[in-house]
Amino acid sequence: MPIAAYDHIAIPTAQPEAMMRFYRRIGFETPDPETWAETGASFFSMHLGDIRINVHCEELWKNPGFDLRGPTALPGCADVCFVWTGGVEAAVALLREAEIEIVAGPVEMVGGRAGGAGRGQSVYFRDPDRNLLELLAYDEDG
């Protein structure tokens, strides 16, 4: 099949600087919040390896002329699972060190690997806009 993978996702935010700081704490490269704010841009991108998240700021997602988005997308609409390598204990340690509250887990989950049958352990947490985030450590990753 020609579709190989997700390239990026886009989410709206009500608090761009807080989102940049939060995602930096879990390893993403983001713009510097103060420098970015000076540009007056209405969006920014964050990345970690091949994962990219485009973030639409309020002036963009509230603009009725901007229709390259989900029509009902509001801050807090995302539910995103990231593959975590190195074991669930290390994922828990990262979140604790970053002072991020774990809202569930570790719990056993089935993910997208192995044709949707891959098993692992997940921890769930929320970003400043209350998007639900998940770190899934597949069993074969230790």
Describe the structure in your own words.
- This protein has 142 residues and is α/β, with parallel strands linked by helices.
- It folds into two domains: 9-61, Signal recognition particle alu RNA binding heterodimer, srp9/1 (2-Layer Sandwich), CATH 3.30.720; 79-141, 2,3-Dihydroxybiphenyl 1,2-Dioxygenase, domain 1.
- Helices cover 25% and strands 34% of the residues.
- It contains five helices and seven strands; from the N terminus they run E-H-H-E-E-H-E-H-E-H-E-E.
- It has helices spanning 16-25, 33-39, 58-61, 88-97, 113-116; strands at residues 9-12, 43-48, 51-56, 79-84, 102-111, 118-126, 132-138.
- Strands 4-7-6-5 form a four-stranded mixed beta sheet. A three-stranded mixed beta sheet has the order 1-3-2.
- Strand 6 and strand 7 (132-138) form a beta hairpin.
- Helix 1 packs antiparallel against helix 2 (33-39).
- It starts with 8 loop residues before the first strand and ends with a strand.
- 25% of the residues are buried.
- The model has no long low-confidence stretch (mean pLDDT 92).
Regarding quaternary structure, what we see is single chain
Radius of gyration: 16 Å
Q: In CATH, what is the homologous superfamily of the largest domain?
A: 2,3-Dihydroxybiphenyl 1,2-Dioxygenase, domain 1
Q: Number of DSSP helices?
A: 5
Characteristic terms for this protein:
7 strands, three-stranded mixed sheet, globular, 2,3-Dihydroxybiphenyl 1,2-Dioxygenase, domain 1
